Amino acid sequence: MDSYNLDVVVTRGGAVESRHRVHAAVVGPKDAMIGGAGDPNVVSFWRSGSKPFLVIPFVAAGAIDDLAWGDDELALACASHGGEPEHVAIAASMLGDIGLEEGDLACGAHEPLSPRGIRLARETGTRFSRLHNNCSGKHAAMLARAHTAGWQTAGYEQPGHPVQQSAMTAVAEWAAVPLGALIVGIDGCGVPVVALPIERMARAYARLGAAAARGEEVAARVIHSMTARPFLVGGTDRFDSVMIEDTAGRVVAKVGAEGVHSVAVPDLGIGLAVKVEDGAQRAQYPAVIRLLQHLGVLGDRLTPRLEEYLRKPVRNTRNEIVGEIRTVN
User: Fold this and answer.
1) What is the per-residue pLDDT across 30-73, written as a single tens digit (0 to 9) for each?
2) Numbers of helices and strands, H then E, in the chain
3) Domain 2-68+164-327 is of which CATH architecture?
4) pLDDT at position 88
5) Rounded (10°) CA dihedral 216, 222, 225, 231
6) pLDDT grade, residue 1 (50/70/90)?
7) Where exactly are the structural domains of the chain?
8) Could you tell me which of 106, 104, 96, 107 has the C-alpha nearest to residue 69?
9) Distance between CA 23 and CA 36 in Å, rounded?
10) Which of 30, 245, 290, 293 sits in a 20 to 30 Å window from 128, CA-based?
């Protein structure tokens, strides 16, 4: 197994001002562990990295076809979107298709994650709503799962609800973790979220990508939606969208909170997961890119947007570059 140092430093004036320790796991075909950094078995909550698996029972049940939903709705269900008008409109449409509205979402309202989303909302005097929540697509899909299955929509976010039970079962199966061994907490958006070793996160993404590459219908539809609609997965200039766009869909990345990131490279059957020990989001992006370079998935020469994520300038209030955020190697 190859070992990497993905630790990230923040410099100022040529000196290291801060350091972030990074753990990672890389899994290849046949569940083989092929690389890692730090402790590949460190346990963390998966947060939004689990979203592609939460929607799998919905797709497998055929309900997405009953609603005549396509890539837009499925990509938004997998997304941590930026709360831009396009995201909000699709989430609202998803709810309208099942006779529900914003107030039926169990997630809270928050400011858009995308600077463009914030700017457009302020320019138009738009009130931030639950639809702006980065998880509104996931919640709309969960409500649709309950609606099409004939389950109560009220309380769909509760751990004992069939929507959440089927979602947790899917996570356990794809990550090869016994259902009873999952550590369950409550995510920022109000639904259950699991903690597991990052090696199992990487394994799940390797399996998902490989299944999609083999043409297995459910996995292929999930991956295709994300690669066909990268903007919906994140938003304007957001990392996951940039990664999918600039690799022409060869790399599928999914952010999670608290320094977690999951990636699939379907044509190679590779999955990887990164966890920044202190949860700093600023460190996970250069770590993901450097790991993909170590694996030969990305070359030394990157697109300008990915290069900026690899070596992120630190600017002062006069917009002068005074340092950078980068991996140690």
Assistant:
1) 999 999 999 999 999 999 999 999 999 999 999 999 999 999 99
2) 14, 13
3) 3-Layer(aba) Sandwich (3.40)
4) 98
5) -150
6) confident
7) 2-68+164-327
8) 96
9) 7
10) 245
